[in-house]
Specification:
Order of helices and strands: HHHHHHH
Shape: elongated
Strand content: under 5%
Helix content: 55-70%
Number of helices: 7
Radius of gyration: 16 Å
Number of domains: 1
Structural class: mainly alpha
Oligomer: single chain
Distance between the termini: 33 Å
Low-confidence stretches: none
Mean pLDDT: 91
């Protein structure tokens, strides 16, 4: 394993072993071994990137009800291809070369899992997306 791969793996948060079992398919194993820790590691950056997206779209998001904010998060990531590709890059950029080689075997299905996880993570943290909040 090269030093980049080793360094990337060392900085990732640990995911409880309860997320793993012997009957998992490739996609689910990749999700739990790679996507889940990387998305958790990149959490604050993903929140800040979404906040920037909202601000570039005239802050319309801030005037919405909670339910509409949740819909907005989902729609923005599903419909805005450039934004979605940017989010994918934030996650994929944290892959080791070996993980990337696994990823390209089934990138379409893994992209879907990845974006669903990012959507859910942002929805779960919608309170961090208020205008006044500042992330450190």
């Amino acid at each position: 394993m090269d030093s980049r791969s080793k360094s990337l793996l060392e900085i990732r948060p640990d995911i409880p072993q309860s997320h793993f079992n012997s009957e998992m398919g490739f996609d689910e194993r990749f999700q739990n071994q790679t996507l889940r820790p990387v998305i958790k590691l990149q959490n604050f950056l993903l929140v800040e990137v979404f906040r920037n997206y909202v601000n570039k779209h005239k802050g319309y998001f801030y005037g919405l009800t909670l339910e509409k904010r949740l819909d907005y998060i989902e729609r923005a990531i599903q419909k805005d291809i450039k934004f979605r590709n940017s989010l994918k890059g934030i996650v994929i950029g944290q892959f080791t070369v070996e993980e990337y080689q696994d990823y390209i075997q089934n990138s379409s299905a893994l992209n879907k899992r990845m974006m669903n996880m990012v959507i859910e993570r942002l929805k779960d943290q919608v309170q961090l997306l208020d205008k006044e909040e500042v992330l450190l």
